[in-house]
Design a protein that fits this description.
Length: about 80
């Protein structure tokens, strides 16, 4: 026996890495539910309706009622 593990290289399959999603583009108004973006080294996914429409709004409007503000804040899910 040895203290060093023996690995058969032919049996090891390479890891399949998912490519990073594109960077968030504030001027993009085509984000849809399920779209993934990268922002500040974090990945976010646009949530399904009723949140989806808020994925395309860059900044929250303070005049929105509390329900709309919550929809906006929850539009992107952190992965």
């Amino acid at each position: 026996p040895t203290f060093i593990p023996v690995v058969d290289v032919e049996e090891v399959s390479p890891a399949v890495l998912t490519p990073c999603p594109p960077h968030y583009v504030p001027s993009n108004t085509n984000y849809a539910a399920g779209d993934a973006i990268e922002m500040n080294s974090h990945v976010f996914v646009c949530n399904h309706p009723p949140y989806e429409e808020y994925c395309n709004i860059v900044k929250m409007d303070e005049s929105w009622n509390a329900t709309i503000q919550e929809l906006f804040q929850d539009a992107w899910g952190h992965m």
